[in-house]
Amino acid sequence: MAELLRGMKRTHMCGVLGIEDIGKEVVLMGWIQRRRNLGGLIFVDLRDREGLVQIVFDKDVSQEAFDKSESIRGEFVIAVRGEVRKRESMNPDLKTGQIEVFAKELKILSESEIPPIHINDEDDAGERLRLKYRYLDLRKPKMQKILKTRSKIASTIRSFLDENGFLDLETPVLTKPTPEGARDYLVPSRVNPGKFYALPQSPQIFKQLLMVSGFDKYYQIVKCFRDEDLRADRQPEFTQVDIEMSFVDEEDVLAINEGLIKKLFKEIKGIEIETPFMRMTYKEAMERYGSDKPDLRFGYELKNLNEIVRNCGFGVFANTVKDGKDVKAININGGAESFSKKGMKNLEKLAKTYGAKGLAWMKLTNDGIDSPIAKFFSEEDTKAIIDKMQAKEGDLILFVADKTSIVNTTLGALRVEIAKKLDIIDEEEYKILWVTEFPLFEYDEEDDRYYAKHHPFTSPVDDDIEILESDPAKARAKAYDLVINGSEVGGGSIRIHDSSLQQRMFKALGFTEEEAHEKFGFLIDAFKYGTPPHGGIAYGLDRLTMILTGTENIRDVIAFPKTQDARCLLTEAPSIADETQLEELQIKVIKE
Amino acid sequence: MAELLRGMKRTHMCGVLGIEDIGKEVVLMGWIQRRRNLGGLIFVDLRDREGLVQIVFDKDVSQEAFDKSESIRGEFVIAVRGEVRKRESMNPDLKTGQIEVFAKELKILSESEIPPIHINDEDDAGERLRLKYRYLDLRKPKMQKILKTRSKIASTIRSFLDENGFLDLETPVLTKPTPEGARDYLVPSRVNPGKFYALPQSPQIFKQLLMVSGFDKYYQIVKCFRDEDLRADRQPEFTQVDIEMSFVDEEDVLAINEGLIKKLFKEIKGIEIETPFMRMTYKEAMERYGSDKPDLRFGYELKNLNEIVRNCGFGVFANTVKDGKDVKAININGGAESFSKKGMKNLEKLAKTYGAKGLAWMKLTNDGIDSPIAKFFSEEDTKAIIDKMQAKEGDLILFVADKTSIVNTTLGALRVEIAKKLDIIDEEEYKILWVTEFPLFEYDEEDDRYYAKHHPFTSPVDDDIEILESDPAKARAKAYDLVINGSEVGGGSIRIHDSSLQQRMFKALGFTEEEAHEKFGFLIDAFKYGTPPHGGIAYGLDRLTMILTGTENIRDVIAFPKTQDARCLLTEAPSIADETQLEELQIKVIKE
């Protein structure tokens, strides 16, 4: 029943026609969004990637096309030859709303059954159904727009980096396990039975080798893989914008990347972003926002109350300070009336999920102070707290007393949750900053050893090289994250390019020379033959696309995403493998 | 010992300095290619991605830099601040040959041991050593140039396709096995134990789904994977330029791709290529060149001699024709003196590797005809053969008599081998053509069934739809290959967009409805909801880069390639996996 094109050529996309085309004969092809009979005419909204246009089937123009049009339904694919005419009743919502096309010829290129989901943005199908019929879900204008934008983001990044002398170089997908990384995906080798490739978590080591090779400036937009238990915003495969430069220090990397981000916002959002970006050290970010990716679109800053409560009458607070821990608070401006008793209970429950033992609060109502802990404070202490918190009538102060890390994490999470809940965030605002001077090491109590916070090749800040062994916990790294609206969209570092410093680093991480060689042998070898100072950054393209398209769900920015249990509902991957193929690979599935 | 940059900034790349920079103070950074003491001065050739520049250490300019320069050796990485001066003895071989830089300050950024291979194009290290020290091998100017060109090829392709409305859309790497394809690489799933992903052999099905989704024009430069036994020109992972378009027929796909190839040759080689490209049907290519990827830079065309030899006195030839087989020949112009007795034996040996039972020959010498088979022919037959072959004194005619396929393959291979051997090919010439109208099916005698020559979604030529069942061997496909200088650099087809035609195709391939659904279920389902006519092409980026850089070895166009036994000599991948990780994956290695 489907007809062939047989030489028919499309002249225009549906969505681009306008009054300038009136009088032209056009050939359009697309999907039927809607069909109506009205006053002896048949009206069809024809859809393609660029939008909708109205087609009119009129007996007086073509009896044949009219008759044929009676059989067409939603999602049929048709080709129409017709004349563009001015429309009588204009549709201002539509780009093509001032014209319509009177059909002289109709070909039905493909029929359609009734689709299981609605092809429009208002469709409320569940996500599993949307993923199973992804090819239909992707027809929705919203999904088309997101993926078109994603394509434009990639091409904008590429053209910026090409213009700035970066080379697009490919690194292997079938490679070696990542030492010190997350869990790798493994690929059994048939030619080398019993051996496995790993899929890369990032091209980190290869991009450093490319710097050793003298390519000077490298980039790649590349799939990376992590076999981790998936959170809502993670996918087993994700796309990284990977960048590395030689003969640079931190300032050079940040400057070129500010240019890149500025250009992206200009091209994609039409927004002029000021450079240089704001910078904040990791230490300041943790102290003031309780997070290494602070969202600066709103206040609720963390304030340290240790000096005020050290000798106060509230034992819990006073003892916390005496034990060398912290008492900190945030002021939810105007939040005194926002939380009922139950709301406050929920906040406390939330606080406890971050390890806090409790959540103290103080409401400044027009009846005075409402707080379960107010009675423990002298009038002077209360005033000092209110002053420090810059609180006024109508405000709500939330206190956490605990180890520094718990206090920061808890209040940091609360400020974000509450800001979202109270809907005080301007979605059109973009707060961009660099978080710098990350700690070089992270101490793992369970393993009783230091881990590299970023990775083992990250360079210490010049001045901290001397404390690498004597005070590793204090050593800062030349590492930086780009944070936009509380989301980490990229991160990187200057790498160690000196073999002897690298040896000291491995030692600080507790590796014997042998272990270091086993894990990083070929990189250590490579560094023996002249290594330039180098550094770079990697962005998550999925995350960047989410921010630039205002999308909350990571699966909406990926054409064919996986579910949280790492399955593709469309193709039903992963699936049972052929027994003979497993035999060839010399592996066997062991059922537990 | 290595020094830090501490704020020092590079001002120029080494290889770009020229007379216009004389008098400037510059900061250069790079690797030491060579160091010489001469007349109390120390001369250093400093190398970076852009080339070499001569640095002079002169006590009178800086005693400190001079003293320091005495310790530097080949492949040390240094930074130099100095003044550009006009050179007394100019070096015309060097872009920077008219200037030199007198050093005021020297930093040794990194030392080097003596590298195991020479960092220049004349290095004759074996390939295994080169691959083990790939990061050093890649420092060679030739390798730098190839990978820079590869990067430019990719960006040229991208900008052309971006300008022409194609969207760069990503398809999954962790996906489903390819039915009817080569052997897949498998990836065990931890979250879904006992199940496996497959790495894609191509994004074929996904790109067709993107057309079903209405994205209209798609491209992707993407890694693909085949677990095949590697030939010299194959790699387990390779890069594909993947393109698909909707609402098009064959002419549209060829036209846009001619634009792309034209632009590539212009940008990369500075050569204007004529469009439209020459076209040749598969049938003609096989008949005239014995190959579906004919190299048209030279003659040696295959000629059919059946009519001449049908009744000749040479029983072998006459019987071949009577048995319905073919006698064909090629004329190696001027080749009569090129092959000794041993040379002719070798040619025959080569012919036999392609299945021929023998190789007959006829030399036209100035002493008359020299040929073991001449005695069987009448004077008239001999003249007819010479006329048909357009042979003249000094030529060599080679004959093969056998089944058509063996005759074509053998003579097709001989003509290429001999052209290479006799060095008659102009390496600067590019002969580009489309080979069209491939057979839709290929009959497999062993399995006694038809296979899709291209893939099961390839559309028949409109006129051949009716013979799909009645004469499948004759059915031609809307499939096309782009052939450059005898190398297939790309291939594609118009796809079937009509469900009922697709069903007929599956039936012709011998699939039951159930089998078809098992293998291609979700694509068949997708085609139920309105499918546009569509088609596309895929290029091998590795192959394309080889042609545009004149490289013979596929490993030279890949930064980190694998050996023929699919190993990476640099990283030693694949390697033994961690036992606990295999347990998590619920798989076990079974040693044979």
UniProtKB/TrEMBL annotation, chains A, B:
GO cellular component: cytoplasm
Self-association and partners: Homodimer.
Reported function: Catalyzes the attachment of L-aspartate to tRNA(Asp) in a two-step reaction: L-aspartate is first activated by ATP to form Asp-AMP and then transferred to the acceptor end of tRNA(Asp).
Gene Ontology terms: biological process: aspartyl-tRNA aminoacylation
Ranges of residues in domain Aminoacyl-transfer RNA synthetases class-II family profile: 147-561
Organism phylogeny: Bacteria, Bacillati, Bacillota, Clostridia, Peptostreptococcales
Enzyme superclass (EC): ligase
Region (Aspartate): 204-207
Residue numbers binding ATP: R226, D227, E228, Q235, E488, G540, L541, D542, R543
Protein name: Aspartate--tRNA ligase
Gene giving rise to this polypeptide: aspS
Organism: Paramaledivibacter caminithermalis (strain DSM 15212 / CIP 107654 / DViRD3) (Clostridium caminithermale)
Record-level Gene Ontology MF annotations: aspartate-tRNA ligase activity; ATP binding; catalytic activity, acting on a protein; nucleic acid binding; transferase activity
Reactions catalysed: tRNA(Asp) + L-aspartate + ATP = L-aspartyl-tRNA(Asp) + AMP + diphosphate
Main location as per UniProt: cytoplasm
Pfam families: GAD, tRNA-synt_2, tRNA_anti-codon
Binding, L-aspartate: E180, R226, H454, R495
Keywords: Aminoacyl-tRNA synthetase, ATP-binding, Cytoplasm, Ligase, Nucleotide-binding, Protein biosynthesis
